[in-house]
Specification:
4 helices, about 180 residues, Cyclic Phosphodiesterase, Chain: A, four-stranded antiparallel beta sheet, about 25% helix, ligase activity, 2',3'-cyclic-nucleotide 3'-phosphodiesterase activity, alpha+beta, EC 3.1.4.58, five-stranded antiparallel beta sheet, single chain, ligase, RNA 2',3'-cyclic phosphodiesterase
């Protein structure tokens, strides 16, 4: 059963900048270049038939292209038990608007997510016994990428594996210039 999400691919320059942040920190599993993306909406496991329905529904997407910039770092979880180390987004309003339109289009297949949307790019997953992240957060708090133009939204399949998930693009939805 496919496990789907909608997201943005990152340009090569931004990927390289994020990969350069990696440090040897106990129990962190850093993302590879192929794993770096920005999730707009997690959908989850769906039946094969639903993939075609979702793809068709998303063809109605009518959102403008927009400029996006990564900035700052943070984590999810508690300071004692972080789960995800991430890079944030500067001025996420256009991304939020895209998310809201996507939610409307896929509402028949996906329940609304109760948590608020925190746009981010996962840098690393934190395992049990992760070293404290405060030093990393201090050193990297000034992260600021070059802005880029977001011109498409992608429907991804996530295939879990021992080295982390592998992502493949099932469909691309252009954003109007």
């Amino acid at each position: 059963m496919p496990r789907l999400f909608l997201g943005l691919e990152l340009p090569e320059h931004q990927c390289q900048q994020l990969l350069a942040l990696q440090e040897p920190i106990v129990s962190l599993r850093w993302q590879t270049a192929a794993q770096l993306h920005l999730t707009v909406r997690f959908i989850g496991a769906v039946q094969e038939l639903q993939v075609d329905e979702l793809t068709s529904a998303l063809a109605a997407l009518d959102a403008p292209a927009f400029s996006l910039q990564l900035g700052g770092v943070g984590y999810f979880g508690s300071p004692q038990r972080p789960s995800i180390l991430w890079a944030g987004v500067v001025a996420p309003a256009p991304l939020q608007a895209l998310r809201e339109q996507v939610d409307e289009l896929i509402a028949p297949w996906c329940a609304a997510e109760p948590q608020r949307f925190v746009p981010h790019v996962t840098l690393a997953r934190c395992g049990p016994g992760s070293a404290p992240l405060q030093g990393f957060l201090q050193r990297r708090r000034g992260l600021l990428s070059v802005p880029w133009q977001v011109k498409e939204l992608c429907l991804f399949n996530s295939d879990p594996g021992s080295g982390g998930s592998r992502y493949s693009v099932l469909a691309r939805y252009p954003l109007e210039g």
